[in-house]
Amino acid sequence: MYCCRIYIESRLRDRLLFRCWVLMALLSLFPLGFCGAAGGQQKAPPMVITVDARMPWKHRIPVRLKMAASAGPLTLVFPRWLPGMHSMQGSLGNFSRLNITADGTPVEWNRDPFDAYLIHLEVPGGAKSVEATYEYVAARDSSGEVFYGVAAGPDLAVLNPAAFSLAPQGDPRAMTVAFSVSLPRGWSAATMLPVASGSAPAPETITYAPVSLYTLVDSPIMAGSHRKTIPLTIPAGDVPHTLELFADTDEILLRKAATVTPLVTRLVAESGRMFGVRHYRAFRFMLALSTEVGRNGLEHHEGVAYVLQPDDLDGVRRQMPGNGWNTMLIPHEFTHSWNGKFRRPYGEDAHSNTAPQSADLIWVYEGLTEYLGDVLMVRSGFRSFDSWRHDLLRQTAGMRYGAGQQWQSLADAALAAPFTYVQGVGTALRSVNDVYYEGELVWLEADAIIRRESRGTKTLDDFCRLFFGGPNRGPEVIPYTRQDVISALQRTQPYDWNRFIHDRFYAPPKGLPTQGFEAAGWKLTSSDMPETPIQGVLDYRLTFGIYTTTTGRIAVLPGSLAERSGLEDGMTLLGVNGSLFTLARLQEAVRATRTNRAPMELLVSNENRYQTIKIAGLNGEQFPVLIRDPARPDLFSAIVAPTTGP
After folding, report:
1. Residue closest to 52 by CA, chosen among 89, 97, 91
2. What is the pLDDT averaged over residues 249-261?
3. pLDDT band for position 402 (50/70/90)?
4. From CA 15, how far away is CA 457, in angstroms rounded?
5. In a 3-state reduction of DSSP, which class is residue 114?
6. Model confidence over 214-241: pLDDT tens digits?
7. Residue 596 burial by CB count (10 A; 0-12/13-18/19+): exposed, middle or buried?
8. Pairing of strands 241-247, 283-289
9. Residues 321, 533: contact at Cβ < 8 Å?
């Protein structure tokens, strides 16, 4: 807890200075970052935001902002750095038809020439209020709208208040907002926002109690015509957890509730054992099962809004190769309630709605969450240990794709993440996915080290209870630094954690990141048979350095035999040994090299040119596999063993 002692000398007489000191003392009693419902010190005039979402599937949402104002300059800002986002993804391009008035009289406004998110205007003398109207025009068929805007189909919608939060420039924790939304007739809504007492102005309009702007932006709304509210069974003494299930049809809703509810119930129990405490008053899992809205989800402090396909969590499908992202989404975003919402890197606090954020420590924010979320995924039954292990293997095998992996540390990739999240194939920098997946393997190694050094008496769960522990005071933010992480690891189990963190995250990479597997009792080797074949894909990165699908378009591993032979990223395979390209023919040709050792001949297109490339020196197919190391104990299996009963 952050607090300060204030010593006021007896000679201090100035009342104004005394009041400032007292105010500083009061503010210091609150941990940095979170200010909940209205009722504390109000730093800005109250605002009222009304949203007309009666036809969200039209992707054009009218918004009205009304606020008290006084004469003089006023700067408004569109949301830019949103909680949970590691890049500037506030969708400025979706705001349109802005009109501003003061007491009903039009006011001229101007966009800042150096910062397009800022809107400047002059409030005329005598004016009592300013009103801004605009439209949020959601991008069609964009899964990104699930976590920053409006994602809607004919029967359900995800509405993020960040899309409707034009507000004065300043500290969002200190601004009070009254928010209301109108929905299609027959729809209902779920959110973490408290509903205001009293009747709504219209049957389809929901009015929420005033909250801080920060709380509003961090509280998505899920609404639809097919909804089922399921209070989850919780351990004795735990806080309430609710599953708000939405779907395209009632039939999907009723059929899938029986699949999803036990999984989320187990997740709540397992997370309680892992962390030992909650940092929220109640939690809502808002899950939409839809074919109309793209898959996605984003963490929030007292709830999460997810969208998945109706069959993603079915028993057989969730174990299938390539379905890992869908099965990890719910545990991953829930884990962020501790790592990312309650404890947050020093550079990602919420003191301003315009200041840039640092991505310095997302190897903790995302890398650790990826690991803990996946462990909870297996412990809770979302996925089997073998399925998760196969996914980790594929991710590891692909981590040296791109020139950045030859020189760029994970910490540097994290710092570059705000500028690489939206980059396509071909960037010279490391993929931001490395921060997640290689970071996950580093935390697997840390868990194994703690178990080994403590002779099985300590695990990374003990680190979690220490680092993310403390009393449950409801939503709050306590920042951390790199040294805070190292100190907590040291208190959990003595070890040279400073060197470990430096070598794994801040030093240039050295080969594939296999140390985590090895420390956990497994080792990476190769075989002529893949562990889990995936339909429609040939992963020949280990064989000769390419990855291709049924379209024939290839990705090429730098420095590989494929690149040395003349293949390049983005080329398209047209023929194999004189025959038209198919995945089966390519596979047959590669397998044949084990016996005939003859060069394989590929016809490829590169933009407007054709060429023939020969690949010599192949010796059949080679695939990465993970096998047990009998010389070491199997810590990997122990890590994912459930800690609670069925």
Report:
1. 97
2. 96
3. low
4. 57
5. coil
6. 999 999 999 999 999 999 999 889 999 9
7. exposed
8. parallel
9. yes
Pairing state between β 478-480 and 343-345: parallel
Burial of 259 (0-12, 13-18, 19+ CB in 10 A): middle
Interatomic CA distance for residues 455 and 468, integer angstroms = 23
Residue 180 has pLDDT above 90, yes or no: yes
pLDDT band, residue 199 (cuts 50/70/90): low
CB 283 within 8 A of CB 239: yes
CA 130/CA 633 separation, integer angstroms: 67
Alpha helices in 162-249 (DSSP H): 213-217
Q: Has residue 43 got a pLDDT over 80?
A: no
Q: Which H or E run includes 565?
A: helix 561-565
d(CA 478, CA 347): 12
Q: Which residues contact 633 (CB under 8 A, 6 or more apart)?
A: 521
Q: For all residues of the chain together, what is the average pLDDT?
A: 88
pLDDT value of residue 557: 83
The predicted-structure confidence for 137-146, as pLDDT tens digits, reads as follows: 998 878 888 9
* DSSP state string for 270-295: HHHHHHS--SSS-EEEEEEE-SSS--
The Cβ-side half-sphere exposure at 65, using a 13 Å CA radius, reads 28
Section 348-367 average pLDDT: 83
Q: How far apart are CA 552 and CA 559, in angstroms?
A: 21
Q: Give kind and range of the element (H or E) at residue 329.
A: helix 324-335
Work out the percent of the chain whose per-residue pLDDT is above 90: 69
| pLDDT tens profile 318-344 | 998 878 899 999 999 999 999 999 999
Which residues, at least 6 apart from 484, have a Cβ–Cβ distance to it below 8 Å? 467
Cα distance between residue 484 and residue 479, in whole Å? 9
User: How far is residue 375's CA from residue 388's CA, in Å, rounded to a whole number?
Assistant: 9
What strands, in cross-sheet order, belong to the sheet with 109-111? 109-111, 118-123, 72-77, 167-168
Q: How high is the pLDDT of residue 499?
A: 98
Residue type, 616: A
Lookup: tokens for 607: 């933009």
Residue 243 to residues 298, 304, 402, 444, 560: CA-CA distances in angstroms?
A: 16, 10, 41, 30, 48
In this model, does residue 431 exceed pLDDT 50?
Answer: yes
At 88, is the secondary structure helix, strand, or coil?
coil
Longest dimension (CA), the chain: 96
DSSP H or E run through 499: helix 497-501
The token duo for 262 is: 């036990």
The encoded tokens of residue 18 equal 């005394």
Angstrom distance (rounded) from CA 486 to CA 492: 10
Task: Indicate the length of the chain as a whole number.
Answer: 646
The residue-averaged pLDDT of 31-44 equals 40
